[in-house]
Amino acid sequence: MRVIILSAGFGKRLRPYTETLAKPALPFLGLPGLAYPLFLAESLNPEKVVFNLHHLPETVKTAVASVQGNGYKVVFTEEQPEILDSGGGIKNAEAQLKGQDFFVSFNGDTILLLSSIDILKRMLEKHQTTAPVATLLVQKHHKAGHSHGGIFTQTDSCNVTHFARQKTTETTNPWHYLGVALYSDRLFDYLPENKPSNILYDTITAAIKAGESVKIHPLNSNEALWFETGNKNDFLNAQKALVEEVQNETLYGEFLKNIHRRFLKGTEPHDWTEFLLSHYNTLSSP
Q1: Span between the terminal Cα atoms of the chain, in Å
Q2: How far is the C-alpha of 151 from the C-alpha of 164, rounded, in Å?
Q3: By the 8 A CB rule, do 191 and 210 touch?
Q4: Under DSSP, is residue 206 helix (H, G, I), strand (E, B) or coil?
Q5: Beta-carbon-side half-sphere exposure of residue 127 (alpha carbons within 13 Å)
Q6: Do the beta carbons of residue 181 and residue 105 sit within 8 Å?
Q7: CB 83 within 8 A of CB 196
Q8: What are phi and psi of 124, to 5 degrees?
Q9: CB-CB neighbours of 170 under 10 Å
Q10: Rounded distance, CA 80 to CA 53, Å?
Q11: pLDDT single digits (tens) 24-74
């Protein structure tokens, strides 16, 4: 299994904090943000994890070094002189990702907690069975198809028809992308060389127009907890909400503790709430 964690972005909405640290390197409850998708990636037993770099690349490398596990190789791919966006970043890493029929992509700044880590394994099994060019992890969200954009499918179907910021017909349903995707190697046929491109709006849209099958792997509302962290308020509110999950001893609170158990150096905290609050990133100074 080969994995890419997309980590090249500027994090513009979190400036000035992202002028000294790339967004995936920003501490989030005591861990660099990229540790959260890395934890999910590790559950799939990858042989290689690729991080694409552009903005403040050394800060991403330092963050990765602080959490990297054993049993897989870490590779960094540089995007210069310009950033290549999600599609171009994947194309630039083709030599590192291609060769096992499919690979997995995670957004490097996604804070996603699952009710069970086996969800990703089931998604993988489904992708292997149906063999689409892409399988996208999704969930219902009230902003999907509006401010967050949406993945639209045929009614009562997992077949993706298009991507948009608004509902275009009454026969399609909007879904919210959770930042995790399985891609077949033939995706590279639709990616232009050395050119910025968006993986959804450019690449997969072109694949659909060419007759390729694109599927969603839908999760119920009680199967995943996803957080927007693109601006300061959302970043702070996401941390607060997760501390409350731990305080309330929920399934997601336990999942968060498991993430920290994986990356903690030393003894497990006696008081998890106190520990998390002591690592709460207030973004008080850039």
Answers
A1: 37
A2: 7
A3: no
A4: helix
A5: 25
A6: yes
A7: yes
A8: -65, -45
A9: 7
A10: 9
A11: 999 999 999 999 999 999 999 999 999 999 999 999 999 999 999 889 999
- Tokens 């959260």 -> residue: 36
d(CA 205, CA 200): 6
Where are the strands (E) in the chain, listed by range?
2-6, 27-28, 31-32, 48-53, 73-78, 102-107, 111-114, 134-139, 150-154, 160-164, 172-184, 214-219, 224-227
Q: Are 159 and 175 contacting, i.e. CB atoms less than 8 angstroms apart?
A: no
Measured between alpha carbons, how far is 282 from 286 in angstroms, rounded to an integer? 10
Q: Structural domains in the chain?
A: 2-227 (3.90.550.10)
- 131-135, 202-206, 267-271: least confidently modelled range: 267-271
Structure tokens belonging to residue 181: 């995707």
β-pairing verdict for 111-114 and 73-78? unpaired
Overall residue count recorded for the chain in this entry: 286
Residue type, 16: P
Q: State whether residue 233 is helix, strand or coil.
A: helix
| Cα dihedral 227, 233, 237, 240 sign | positive
Q: Are 109 and 229 in contact (CB under 8 A)?
A: yes
Neighbours of 142 (CB within 10 A): 10
Identify which of 263, 160, 142 has the alpha carbon closest to the alpha carbon of residue 217.
160
Contact 73/2 with Cβ under 8 angstroms? Answer: no
Q: In the beta sheet, which residues pair with residue 35?
A: none
Provide the token pair at 28: 């989030």
Can you read off the two tokens belonging to residue 202? Answer: 């450019």
Mean residue pLDDT across the chain:
92
Task: Please give the Cα distance from 15 to 70 (Å, whole number).
Answer: 33
Residue 124 CA to its chain's centroid (Å): 15
CB 38 within 8 A of CB 60: no
